[in-house]
TrEMBL record:
<dbReference type="GO" id="GO:0016998">
    <property type="term" value="P:cell wall macromolecule catabolic process"/>
</dbReference>
<dbReference type="GO" id="GO:0006032">
    <property type="term" value="P:chitin catabolic process"/>
</dbReference>
<protein>
    <recommendedName>
        <fullName>Glycoside hydrolase family 19 catalytic domain-containing protein</fullName>
    </recommendedName>
</protein>
<dbReference type="InterPro" id="IPR000726">
    <property type="entry name" value="Glyco_hydro_19_cat"/>
</dbReference>
<dbReference type="Pfam" id="PF00182">
    <property type="entry name" value="Glyco_hydro_19"/>
</dbReference>
<dbReference type="GO" id="GO:0004568">
    <property type="term" value="F:chitinase activity"/>
</dbReference>
<dbReference type="InterPro" id="IPR023346">
    <property type="entry name" value="Lysozyme-like_dom_sf"/>
</dbReference>
<feature type="domain" description="Glycoside hydrolase family 19 catalytic">
    <location>
        <begin position="1"/>
        <end position="181"/>
    </location>
</feature>
Length: 181
């Protein structure tokens, strides 16, 4: 499901993804993005969240959860969750993802595009890396409520850090500071 060509096609919607500042910052951003993707997808083997019992519906933001609609559990490389994220991504793509969130798990380009959109526009991950806030800021933005603030790094957060360091090593760049939550 996850292909290189689909990833490249999705990044064309976001020309500043992994293309700002110095080459080292670009490498760190690519390493950070894929470290989080690796954790979220179990090394690109999962398209949908394993535990699909979570509905992830929060109507306090004025975004509905229409009757009969599938739950807003995680889908795609960064496991897009919550009705408000599907609504915002759908509006950005001129699609109705709130009525059919499963589209993110059915179309490779859309799947990658939703993750790059989240990275670039909805989570501050791009800004965290390009403004040298450190990899830990991406963990907080993506899954901080589950993985951060526990007194020490949770195993999923530590996995992300280890993946990030490994990708940085492969790309020949220092990971920088502020790696943990």
């Amino acid at each position: 499901f996850y292909t290189y060509n689909d990833f490249i096609a999705a990044t064309k919607y976001y020309p500043t993804f992994e293309s700002s500042r110095s080459l080292d910052v670009q490498k760190r951003e690519l390493a950070a993005y894929f470290a989080n993707v690796k954790q979220e997808t179990g090394t690109l083997q999962y398209i949908r969240e394993i535990n699909r019992n979570n509905v992830y519906c929060d109507t306090s933001r004025g975004i509905p959860c229409p009757a009969g609609t599938k739950a807003y559990y995680g889908r795609g490389p960064l496991q897009l969750t919550w009705n408000y994220n599907y609504d915002a991504a759908g509006k950005a793509f001129n699609m109705n993802l709130i009525q059919n969130p499963d589209q993110v798990a059915q179309n490779g380009v859309l799947s990658w595009r939703s993750s790059v959109w989240f990275w670039m526009q909805n989570s501050n991950c791009h800004t965290a890396i390009t403004q040298n806030q450190g990899f830990g800021a991406t963990i907080r933005a993506i899954n901080g409520g589950q993985e951060c603030g526990k007194g020490s790094e949770t195993q999923p957060a530590q996995n992300r850090i280890n993946y990030y360091k490994d990708f940085c090593s492969q790309l020949g760049v220092s990971p920088g500071g502020n790696l943990g939550c």
